[in-house]
């Protein structure tokens, strides 16, 4: 059974003072979390603070983006090796906001995915469709093209490296990010099942093992219904990761759903 994972994405929020209070509260709230994994991806200037505060806790930390390049004349870019220097476990790759605002392509995102793996990080590779694409009925075509870019850019051998470092896929319907709209559990499950099926076409074992997170306006009121879906293995959380008790409740919902699934198997 895949272990649930909840990852907070702070986006461009935070300050040293706010972060201190928020992370301290999260550590207290989640100290007893045993049946799910959790992590926070912070803006790059706060990686040292996250490392200092979270080291030794059960909360992992990571960055929000990775350059496809290891080093060089790329002003403003951050390499995977730099994230590793700060003890990061995770790196968000190909988030829709970067695809839209920074014009990152499928090829760039795939190259960044490979760079993260090369540095020993666990990439969280984001895929998802816009509202217009969903209404046009091309969700699977869009998500499929984003996934296949990894193999087209990096080759089939990248799959073994990806599973070794527990690479994660995050399905984020663009129309549900920051809008308050959420895919219904059945809508989200359908896309998650498609993603797993598409991976299974290349390697069934990897498809069974890879964790696929849902990332479209997850909140305490809908987390439990989403996390009990068979192919939803947790969440990539935006706004609610900035509120300690809301993030705690989502993590607890993930842990509870894992207990429910375990009980169902034993029965």
Automatic annotation (TrEMBL):
Which Pfam families does the annotation name? TIM (PF00121)
Q: Cite the EC number.
A: 5.3.1.1
Which key words are in the record? Cytoplasm, Gluconeogenesis, Glycolysis, Isomerase
Catalytic activities = D-glyceraldehyde 3-phosphate = dihydroxyacetone phosphate
Class of this enzyme: isomerase
Q: HAMAP family, alphabetically?
A: TIM_B
Put simply, this protein is called Triosephosphate isomerase
Protein's organism: Pseudomethylobacillus aquaticus
List the lineage, top down: Bacteria, Pseudomonadati, Pseudomonadota, Betaproteobacteria, Nitrosomonadales
- Gene of origin? tpiA
């Amino acid at each position: 059974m895949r272990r649930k994972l909840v990852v907070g994405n702070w986006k461009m929020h935070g300050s040293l003072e706010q972060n201190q209070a928020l992370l301290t509260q999260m550590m207290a709230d989640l100290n007893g979390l045993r049946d799910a994994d959790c992590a926070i991806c912070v803006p790059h200037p706060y990686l040292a603070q996250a490392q200092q505060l979270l080291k030794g806790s059960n909360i992992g930390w990571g960055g929000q983006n990775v350059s496809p390049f290891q080093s060089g004349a790329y002003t403003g870019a951050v390499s995977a090796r730099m994230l590793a220097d700060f003890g990061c476990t995770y790196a968000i790759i190909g988030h829709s906001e970067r695809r839209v605002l920074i014009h990152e392509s499928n090829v760039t995102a795939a190259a960044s995915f490979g760079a993260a793996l090369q540095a020993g990080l666990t990439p969280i590779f984001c895929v998802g469709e816009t509202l217009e694409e969903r209404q046009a009925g091309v969700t699977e075509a869009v998500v499929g093209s984003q996934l296949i870019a990894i193999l087209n850019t990096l080759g089939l051998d990248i799959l073994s490296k990806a599973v070794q470092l527990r690479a994660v896929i995050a399905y984020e319907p663009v129309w549900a990010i920051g809008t308050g709209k959420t895919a219904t559990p059945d809508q989200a499950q359908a896309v998650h099942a498609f993603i797993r099926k598409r991976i299974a076409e290349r390697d069934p074992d990897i498809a069974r093992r890879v964790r696929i997170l849902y990332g479209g306006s997850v909140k305490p009121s809908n987390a439990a219904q989403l996390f009990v879906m068979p192919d939803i293995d947790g969440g990539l959380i935006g706004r609610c990761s900035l509120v300690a008790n809301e993030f705690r409740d989502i993590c607890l919902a993930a842990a509870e759903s894992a207990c429910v699934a375990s009980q169902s198997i034993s029965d």
